[in-house]
Amino acid sequence: MKSKKMYLLLALAVLAVCLFALPAWANERLATAIAEAQANMPDKVTGEPGYLGIPGGPQLQWWWGLLWAVWVGWIFSTVGAFGGIMAGVGHITMYGLGDYAKTFGKDAKLNKVLTDSIRVSNQWLVGCSAALSSFNYWKAGRLVAPLGIALAIGSVAGSWLVPWLTAGKISLKAYLGYFGLFVLFLGCYLFYETTPAGQGKKKAAKAAAKAFQDSVKKQRDGGEVDMSEMGVKVQKFTPTACEFTFFGVEFNFNPVIPVIGGFIIAALASFLGVGGGFLLVPFLTSVAGLPMYLVAGTSAAAVFIGMINSIASYMMLKGTPVQWSLIGAELVGIVIGSMIGPRTSKYIPDVWLKRLFVVLALYVGVRYCSKGFLGYSLVPPF
């Protein structure tokens, strides 16, 4: 009951942001970019203030942002990934910000301000969903805290470094190409893991997944099962070794490896303006050998830490503006979607969670990779 009240208060708080906040965090960087566009392309910066208060900018509907964010929160809290990628699809395509940014040319300051704004807006959504998902999976005994902590330690440096190096230097076209390329690569890799050859290497993960599914079935049939009691139990945690059990199956890993992995993943995720879950999922299933039922919560914990650092770096160090009214509406949707995800994912077989990830990765990867590098999309929009 307390958790429901907490969600309600959080939803009311972000709704207040949506209704009463200023359109954008106005700053010198945004003002300079608008002034340059007005001097060089006056016909493109005229009319009613739209996104970020830019004259003639897109007029975004808060309710559309809320609905799309429900989907973003659900997909991230279900598979531990794709929240930032789906947020990016919303901001780039659904809201038309990608096409709008391209009208200013890749060398224009406003193009790069809009690109950075898309990147950090994605991360606001993922950070909120990651916080809620981490809490829900921890309560359910489906979060490997030591592994999440090790990944988070590595992510701190990576999520500060990349915004400092790249903010204001990446055009939308280059961003789309790299965004799609990474997603496409990971989709292909995850597809391999759903094949018999890939599945054959994951004996412990398969055993744990089967034990979990059997318990869910027993509970659904009216049997008494304490799911949290059978959840993650840490047996040993030192700087060089960690051992834990999940539904009676033993797992172990060296914490040094996820620290290094966390740094690399956070650096790439921060560059792409996403949460990094789509990189963490293959890392946790392949390197750590976890079943998908543990991946979502553990991934969310690491993503949350990385998002806090990356958002602060983009907004405080580089003055990246965001549309607060849109962010507020989207966070309401994130709260709703993140409440539903953990409650529905346990009814979806482990292999189908991976296949859902693969289908989305292939679609999004081909679309944005071709749009960024070829100038047009090889697949239609949603």
From TrEMBL:
<keyword id="KW-1133">Transmembrane helix</keyword>
<feature type="transmembrane region" description="Helical">
    <location>
        <begin position="61"/>
        <end position="85"/>
    </location>
</feature>
<dbReference type="InterPro" id="IPR002781">
    <property type="entry name" value="TM_pro_TauE-like"/>
</dbReference>
<keyword id="KW-0732">Signal</keyword>
<protein>
    <recommendedName>
        <fullName>Probable membrane transporter protein</fullName>
    </recommendedName>
</protein>
<keyword id="KW-0812">Transmembrane</keyword>
<feature type="transmembrane region" description="Helical">
    <location>
        <begin position="290"/>
        <end position="312"/>
    </location>
</feature>
<feature type="signal peptide">
    <location>
        <begin position="1"/>
        <end position="26"/>
    </location>
</feature>
<feature type="transmembrane region" description="Helical">
    <location>
        <begin position="352"/>
        <end position="369"/>
    </location>
</feature>
<dbReference type="Pfam" id="PF01925">
    <property type="entry name" value="TauE"/>
</dbReference>
<dbReference type="InterPro" id="IPR051598">
    <property type="entry name" value="TSUP/Inactive_protease-like"/>
</dbReference>
<keyword id="KW-1003">Cell membrane</keyword>
<feature type="transmembrane region" description="Helical">
    <location>
        <begin position="256"/>
        <end position="284"/>
    </location>
</feature>
<keyword id="KW-0472">Membrane</keyword>
<dbReference type="GO" id="GO:0005886">
    <property type="term" value="C:plasma membrane"/>
</dbReference>
<feature type="transmembrane region" description="Helical">
    <location>
        <begin position="324"/>
        <end position="340"/>
    </location>
</feature>
<feature type="transmembrane region" description="Helical">
    <location>
        <begin position="174"/>
        <end position="192"/>
    </location>
</feature>
<feature type="transmembrane region" description="Helical">
    <location>
        <begin position="143"/>
        <end position="162"/>
    </location>
</feature>
<comment type="similarity">
    <text>Belongs to the 4-toluene sulfonate uptake permease (TSUP) (TC 2.A.102) family.</text>
</comment>
